[in-house]
Amino acid sequence: MKNVTVYEFNEKWRERDIAYESLEDELKRRVYPLLCSLDRVTRPDKRMGRPPKVKPAMAAFLAVAKECGNENTYRELASSRWVEFLGIKRVHYTTIHKAIKRLSPGLLEDAGRMIAELVSGGKMDCVIDATGMDIRKYEKEVYRGEERRKRQYLKLNGIWDAYRKVFHAVDVLEGKAHEYKGSQEMLERVRTPIGRFFGDPAYAGRDFVQDVADSGAEPVIKPPKNATPKTKGGPAWRKLVMEYRELGYEDWRDKTGYGERFPNEGQFGAFDTRFGDEANVRSRHMVRGSD
């Protein structure tokens, strides 16, 4: 019998399948027990009534598994091996969908961060960026004496692995908010060690550049044209601006690897294409705007 794996194309797919099998084992062995512990800590009180068919830890695990596996719809997820692993009795796919929608943002964020840390491994180069997104939530306003509905607009601010394309931290900003707002707090939530930290001029602030340097990462953030090297308590800012001025943009880009940010410009575009139509807000806890 002919061994089809001798061909380079098939060999690459075989390596990909092995990688996914390894990730599946890690999800079962490490992520789910941690989610159960987090759920017990965050919800220590025993609630009255019948226990849910899909517990919060199970729902958070299924939300992560859905994005990591081959299950593209909730119908497929309801009949997948993940449900069998969790010991969930036969349920309608809408039960899983509602359980995920009811999750607290904190538990869901922890679940996503766990899988991101598994994928990124020991160290990573990362990118920070923001994108705008319309949501299906409206507010009333008066325009030329007439009342009308205006669709609300939000910005997603995120930090992700530049090469493995997994998000490590995400914040929701108000529609007119600047990308730099709240980025320091988001950086503190990233637990994977960072090598180079790529960002566009929207994040070129003295305090933020210094925070990136203090975290042990190399700030590769393009300074604006009118930037001055005045320290004002941020020596990392002076170093960044002086190096940029001495080398010029092209040489600075090649030396620091700033060009690695450009292929990542489509990361949020892919996110919006996949989830943009599902961005609904039906209750206050489903959206968090930075103050």
From TrEMBL:
GO terms for molecular function: DNA binding; transposase activity. It holds the Pfam family DDE_Tnp_1. It comes from the Archaea. Residues 125-238 form the Transposase IS4-like domain. InterPro entries: Tn903_transposase (IPR053172), Transposase_11 (IPR002559). GO terms for biological process: DNA transposition. This is Transposase IS4-like domain-containing protein. It comes from candidate division MSBL1 archaeon SCGC-AAA261G05. The lineage of its organism: Archaea, Methanobacteriati, Methanobacteriota, candidate division MSBL1.
